């Protein structure tokens, strides 16, 4: 039997007997507004903002909303188990914390607080290449808990190789390669504030601490930080990369490799042909291409194309337990959640991230049970109906 995540609601009600109420809302869609009120416009805009006029971020929510759950009755759901196997690892629930860079702009405890929260709940934490804390330090904060490393594939192959060997040595099990950011998109909220933390050397910790990166500098980072920042900007990503280049990653990483940012079934097939282990159907939370397809609208075609060959994961627009239910019913094996945990971190540090994880999984547990499912494995497209506008 798995953990009954739904018991979190009784914990909340029992705490209420002594007058205690949750420090953060349990409707996680309210976190963004709270964060807007409490944090500065630069950091909030960086996390909450999207490409262009935000149409893709809205499309992500709309694509999930269009699918409605069809509950079934009189099925035995008294014992539930949310555990799943993903990429050969047993997870207590189909949830992973997505990679988000520069978390120090949200809270001084930054990535370590989010990683400890994930470890405490048994949920994998994905560390961004663009973290504000070096990967070894985050690994130390997690003990032996499940952790994944997200690679922004740099221009310099020596830095790429170094990142992979450091991540492997620090116990990161899965490599998540983000493909949808060969350059930064047009993001008006950041542009209007002229806010890009990297230019201040924030979010560059993995690079500045890397021997291969340092080898490309004329002087040590602390002696000429501006030169280090410009070196970082010049190599951060590489718009010239193509499918055959994946062989380089396969050669230098012996664990699972997942490609993040896949929306077209042909790209998913190309990932499978290249010997990858999984894909994340994602449009970067609407942060890269304005006017893009909503990620949940792309999910069924990708699952149909490669579901039997690859592990299909999903992110972009997940805010609630029922969102997770829908993504699983559409064929994802697990979901990655991003902004909600960043808001939780900004509002209440590690405890805020744990609150977000527990709310999501309590709501998922209850949604499954109340819809006639004892776990995620019985979900399928027949459990949803798509509303036509």
Could you characterize the architecture of this molecule?
The mean pLDDT is 98. This protein is of the alpha/beta class. The longest helix is centred in the last third of the chain and has 32 residues, at 339-370. α5 (110-121) packs parallel to α6, α13 packs across α14 and α15 (321-329) packs across α16. The protein has an 8-stranded parallel β-sheet. The protein has a two-stranded antiparallel sheet with strand order 1-12. The protein has helices spanning 8-16, 31-38, 41-48, 55-66, 110-121, 135-142, 157-169, 188-193, 205-208, 211-214, 225-235, 246-252, 265-273, 295-306, 321-329, 339-370, and strands at 67-69, 84-86, 89-91, 95-97, 125-128, 147-151, 174-178, 257-262, 278-281, 311-314, 334-337, 384-386. The protein contains 16 helices and 12 strands. The termini are far apart.
Short description:
By secondary structure, the chain is α/β, with parallel strands linked by helices. Helices cover 42% and strands 12% of the residues. It has helices at residues 8-16, 31-38, 41-48, 55-66, 110-121, 135-142, 157-169, 188-193, 205-208, 211-214, 225-235, 246-252, 265-273, 295-306, 321-329, 339-370, and strands at 67-69, 84-86, 89-91, 95-97, 125-128, 147-151, 174-178, 257-262, 278-281, 311-314, 334-337, 384-386.
